[in-house]
């Protein structure tokens, strides 16, 4: 039985969505002794057939790990993944170069199979007697008058559940959000990007990884890119991001192979020519969408949208799952501050969290340009060098954007604001044309001016400090 | 029988929505000999009971009138409305001041009852043998494979219609748009404003209008405002626009009357104290929303969204209906250019029209600030004076934004771009502190520099000309 810290036997919550965020959030409530009905549209994933080589990978980082640690699941989940310590860039001539994610040993991201992670979280939820999981239950409606949530079970019958509040963790096509938008004035936007994606598999060869294991492999090509994340079965989940109009020009085997030969020559043999052709012509390019909505709480304070239901983002900062998990951490801070009064805590959560998740939705779009475009430019390397160099010298004063987002719990909106401040400082460096001389000057400035100054009490009081949580 | 100009007996179109735009558009198709199925969710409005004093008014201007003229309905509809030649501003001391809409006699807007307009358009549609109207038919689905549109009739049965294409003119909650968003990647945003609205009636007194007839009356109060439009029954449809949080502070009769006494003293006696109280406490403040989506055409080119289904706007430029009507004019330009090939014309329409309707959605939001806030400032008067003065002097070179939007058919996006150019020029004027001296200088500049220069062939060739269509 899992560890319950307190007891609220009179409170019951409905969590809609038994995916990653919903299963995690159910455990959070149960840990505090709150009764949970967890509803999932699909059958139990743990009883489904595994399709070999068709995994989807998640990249777990600080925010997600902290949330897993809250329910004592961090270690088991990290053990089921593969750490990635750097990006491995593949150029047109098949040369590779590593660009580390951070400067410290703990600056690693965990590549983990979505299905394994979901199964582990459902196993964890099953340990709490407070949680009842209802698979194949489709959300139908919420009645705010008598607080009854209605679901359609697999026999097609409507079943009512009386609960204190409703959490919509039901993904980017959220049925809870759709219901809330019918009764409340919800600002909403969805934006598709020109790039679509298609997944391939790089299988192991002679029982071994065919590329270096502990890396996120990237083939950046300006308007498009290929990425590959390692799995524990020694395969790589490989994703092609390509504008739809280019996808549509590749109509024959020859066109496809010529395209890969030109832009991703080494990837052809990794994926295998036959599998590449088979997968490409039997799959449909899938769209990528950014979704924002506001507010995340209903007018009555009885419904809260979390995770992808509240904020879907393009996958280029790998913060979709991490931000969805962090939502639970932020909510439970608010619940504790408000003595577990749901509606007050929901309004409090909405007030601050909304700006942070809007920031990460925007940052994810920004990182798409960085991953596909900027990594091919010299200025990108220099920016990373300057960032890391300043971070080493004045770690409480200068944290690179990627590090803040991925390896700290600094609120996303603050990450964005700090980056804008850093950009002002870096204009100095840009004036010298990203040169070694400029880097040298900045380094000297940091060592002899900023660092000693930073130690004076006056400056310490005036300027904000942004230490990482770990 | 209405006048049909040509014949396309093999073509059939489904128009969803028998409101203003849908009824008009059906006539456009029929005029070109195309068969039309026109579907409306509600029963025939012409058989419904008239609720006295509960009218909603539309403000018809150039774009709308040109569309009505296309189906020979302009005159009959204008005769059923009341022309408004100026804004009549009411200040806190009950003083009034008129600010004309334009400089020419034809610069008037027609105030017309929504219901009367809809009835006239349905009557017109009934004259064409090409049009079949289906009331109480709810759009269910569109099958692009066999081009079958399915509707649920009032008995609850599904009925199929085989057509060449589907037009969604079904308003801001469009069912056609919702269906298209399920299959296609449609960018979409909806944004509510803090202001909500509530409608009152200023009845006639002794059989006469209680205020000057040919004006749009405005009580601008920065964060909120009251407006009143004349009706042929000598009443005024009166609308209060107020932030929701202020609505919520008015919970008692005393609070309501004190609020009106302070901000709209003359309006209390116009509406009548008892009616004011009765209406206020029996009505719910209604929200205002801006909606944009992109594209307006389906991937297959077989569905087109028009009017509010494609672009809903806050009502502050009175261009919601006018832009919805102009959509039909633009579509038929494209249809004629493409020899009535629906999909090609739809794609063509989407390419240009989308930017124009996004511009008017934005301009409507901008005009909210102008109507409620700017009209109370001296700079607003001066801007209008300068605008009109320059317009008189160099009418081909300087058309005020309001005039362009309301009294010409200059594409909305171009209106916005021209205004931005004008703003640059007006910085000159602003530098002199909006003074009479500044106005004098600008006038002289126009008379002795711009006007003669404008007549030289070189300048005429270099600079674009923006003459109004009428």
Key traits:
homodimer; 470 residues; alpha/beta; FAD/NAD(P)-binding domain; 5-stranded parallel β-sheet; 16 helices; 19 strands; globular; disordered C terminus
What secondary-structure arrangement, pairings included, does this model have?
Two copies of one chain form a homodimer.
Chain A: E1 8-16, H1 20-31, E2 34-39, E3 57-60, H2 62-70, H3 74-79, E4 82-84, E5 86-90, E6 96-100, E7 109-113, H4 114-126, E8 131-134, E9 138-143, E10 148-152, E11 158-162, E12 165-168, H5 175-183, E13 187-202, E14 215-221, E15 224-230, E16 236-243, H6 244-247, H7 253-263, H8 265-271, H9 273-282, E17 286-294, E18 303-305, E19 311-312, H10 320-337, H11 342-372, H12 378-393, H13 401-407, H14 412-431, H15 436-455, H16 457-462
Parallel strand pairs in A: 1-2, 1-12, 2-8, 5-14, 12-18
Antiparallel strand pairs in A: 3-7, 4-7, 5-6, 9-10, 10-11, 13-16, 13-17, 14-15, 15-16, 17-19
Keywords (chains A, B): FAD, Flavoprotein, Mitochondrion, Monooxygenase, NADP, Oxidoreductase, Pyridine nucleotide biosynthesis
Subcellular location (chains A, B): Mitochondrion
Main location (chains A, B): mitochondrion
Describe the protein:
The structure is a homodimer of 470-residue chains. Chain A contains 16 helices and 19 strands. Chain A has 470 residues and is α/β, with parallel strands linked by helices. Chain A has 3 domains: 8-84 and 106-189 and 290-370, FAD/NAD(P)-binding domain; 191-287; 377-462, no CATH class. The first copy, chain A, has an 8-stranded mixed sheet with strand order 6-5-14-15-16-13-17-19, sandwiched between helices. The radius of gyration of chain A is 24 Å and the shape is globular. Chains A and B meet through β13 of A and β13 of B. β13 (187-202) of chain A pairs antiparallel with β13 (187-202) of chain B.
